[in-house]
Amino acid sequence: MELKKILGITFLSGVILFSGTLSSVNASKMTVKNLTKNDLPNVKILATGGTIAGSSESSTDTTGYESGALDIKTIIKTVPQLKKVANVSGEQIVNIGSQNMSNSILLKLAKRINTLLASKDVDGIVVTHGSDTLEETAYFLDLVVKSEKPVVVVGSMRPATAISADGPLNLYNAVKVASTKEARNKGVLVTLNDRIGAARYITKTHTTAADTFKSPEQGYVGEIAGDKVLFYNEPTRKHTTQSVFDVSKFDKLPQVDIIYGYQNDSRYFYDTAVKSGAKGIIVAGAGNGLLSDAALAGARDAVKKEVVITRSSRVGSGVVTHEESDDKDKFVTSDSLNPQKARILLMLALTKTKDPKKIQEYFNEY
Which residues contact 320 (CB under 8 A, 6 or more apart)? Predict the structure, then answer.
């Protein structure tokens, strides 16, 4: 009886009766094991496919592989070290190459993340994603996730079957970042190649290199070094819980197209976009977001049909400055957002208003 009393109080608090015999050594081991597991954060991995789930018959094939060939359970098994970092579970949202990421999938993903993060049983989210449009999904989530808990988007540049595949370590690092308290309230983060980037600033800069994701102007927010997660900077633009955008009741988003500017371009792209139902057009203009005379005529006529025109730049970095002519033409400028991210913000802005002045405020704030 005395032994049971000691066990009940010391090792299994609240337990009065035991069925059968139990040694103090076994009870102690069981409690330590449970405490260790319970002390780890709970991280949910939501998989969408991409290169990180890619497969090829050749271990040297880094370009001709099949994206999204592996499911998330298989991927998790290849990184057993995750068990030491967090209580990890996986869920397959879709399994596609990210070039096929659609608005409907974005909405499904965002709603699922918000549902999971509202639970006390989930401490952080990792999203596996193809690298080609990863930055767009990350920025979309940055604007619509309604939680301070960490959300980390991760991918890879080499398929799982390749020599020196980068996916396993990238995933391990992403789970580590999502497990840290320091990652809270920093907006959606992107982790590849030992770097941590803010969704607002990170972009893909190289077609195939492993170090493709960079923040050319604003820099990274942190890095993973020596198995430690280190943060150095904070995103300054509004995100997540500070955002006014809420997609919980939407099953579709306004159509926004991107038109690329080039020498000898014409207005017919603008006319076609309007006829096809575009509610907004992002112009990937030359230099500081400039349009040719022909393109400018098409853009001005689009505005007359209540289509919001936003000037961005094809250059890749730098701010598109807002000029007096923009106010006259009722154009919006994208600040430092590249065309693909400007499209994301304009889609969400159009769920709130068609007023270019108000939409300009969104581009200045987010």
Answer: 285, 288, 289, 311, 312, 313, 333, 334, 335, 336
